[in-house]
């Protein structure tokens, strides 16, 4: 009798396990599991070359925590430069953000919202055009002289071919609906975030400014306020700040995180810290919903960003 009871219980347990696995696979239908990426924790699934009316197709990866289940709903972090986030053996510079390591630990923290990460890959030759805040230029074309425009073109940065607005339309109108219907996620503004570094930091600022009804928070690491390479008489920072000051998300409902190091390319950002503060702190933001942090000795690299990624993620995702 005991043996029969044991077999019955074991059968029930196996049945429940198989049911949960089936449910999760069904949820991930548009995506295929990525096996060539080495993860410390979690699971990575990919949608290859999603069709888009707006941008050149590229892979999109979604990181799920080990305990992901459709019985819960998760916040969503949209991140740029998706191929740089998880595995240094597959990146061009053999560096990574260690997103899976940090995200796994935070997902087990009761003070942090459970979340998934949507990693949008870049296309190297299009990265600058995709991640530049287009309206910073198109709203102020007269401020850019012809010789500067030619300098940009000589470096394969054609301001007439900026696609930042199209890139955001892809994320907001094409990608987000797929994520919302394919995964068990919270769809509202206060649980949808955007994050990136360098040009990705610039685009994250642009994303929350353009779509404050979609993104409730943005983390902008080593934000590339220069907009281009270091050069004399660069008008782009002023144009970017002018745009930012004219498109500030409501401080009552949004969070903004900026930071910068002091070495390599990050050294050029030091002089802009006060300008960034003045834009947001004078418009309702406080230390509760705004950060602009300096990291002494850190440079412009994934190795530096991985050391501090926990800080912006905690800031955005901490339960109120």
Quick description:
The chain contains 11 helices and 9 strands.
Question: What this model shows, in words?
Answer:
The protein is α/β, with parallel strands linked by helices and 320 residues long. It has one domain (21-317): Rossmann fold (3-Layer(aba) Sandwich), CATH 3.40.50. Helices cover 37% and strands 15% of the residues. It contains eleven helices and nine strands. A nine-stranded mixed beta sheet has the order 1-2-3-5-4-6-7-8-9, with helices on both faces. β4, α2 (99-107) and β5 form a beta-alpha-beta unit. It starts with a helix and ends with a helix. The model is unreliable at 1-29 (pLDDT under 50).
CATH-scheme architecture: 3-Layer(aba) Sandwich
Strand content: 5-15%
What is the number of helices?
11
The secondary structure category is alpha/beta
What is the arithmetic mean of pLDDT?
89
Record the strand order, biggest sheet. 1-2-3-5-4-6-7-8-9
Give the distance, in angstroms, between the N- and C-terminal Cα atoms.
53 Å
By CATH reckoning, the class would read: Alpha Beta
Indicate the CATH topology. Rossmann fold
If you compute it from the alpha carbons, what radius of gyration comes out, rounded to the nearest whole angstrom?
21 Å
Please trace the helix and strand order, writing H or E for each element: HEEEEHEHHHHEHEHEHEHH
